[in-house]
Amino acid sequence: MLSVVTLVRNRNRMLRDFLRGWSSQDLEELEVVVVRAGGYEDPTEATVDGPTPTVRHVTLPTGLDSEAIAYSHARNAGAAAARGDRLVFCDADTMPAPGCARRLHDALGDHDALITGDVRYLPPDVDLSRPVESLVALARPNPGRPTPPAAPGEVDLTWRHELVWGLCMGLRTTTFRDLGGFDESFCGYAGEDTDLATAVRSSGRPAGAVGGAVVLHQHHDSFEPPLHQLRATVANAQRYRDKWGAWPMEGWLTRFASAGLVEWRNDVVEVLRDPTPDEVEAHRCRVAAPFR
To answer: What is the value of pTM for the model shown?
Structure first.
């Protein structure tokens, strides 16, 4: 069985599209685990009409649902509730195209590896009620990632592990447990997925992408770099450096340093000041660049 684990906070509109996409799959052995990571919206209300996979709901304990989402803990809680022998962590602001579930399921059956789908990004203001095929035609790949195989179901296991992100990452349940799951010392935003990917690499397992397992990212405003998550990003980058001896998220750290927000030395990064509200707002991205 394939278990799809997602986190959600106040994104019921997106969650409905997420569930609609998974309900259209041709895989019977499929379940979705929805972890409520705080917020005022009740994700059990984000139901869809028609046939759906089994949906399990998990709510984080009190104290773990603050504004700083406990990503590692939440994903581990979702994985603990999952019943499948194959796990895929997929963000609630995505939609799978038809055939995605079966191709991910089969790839994990054939390969003890870290995998991702063919992730593509939708532009703003798209009518998500359109047929999925037309949405796939509108979506664009991330130019910073390799091109997944063109043939549906083909698996390319030559990717660098750090290119498999929490947006869509899958592995066997036994492998996830053997590796200890997500490291919960990574608190809040950023880095916990790169840490798990590095643990997979350290275990000798490969990483790559599955052709035809198309996952569409729904557009929403974002921040580049994530000044609104400065302290969590810096703390998690330092945690990764201390653990693995290398820096993750170097592009973000470079931009934080250039803005005078952090001091970044060889083995230490230190917050000098928090960004002002105007600085944060100036880095808001309302268009889908560079994925137009």
So the answer is: 0.91
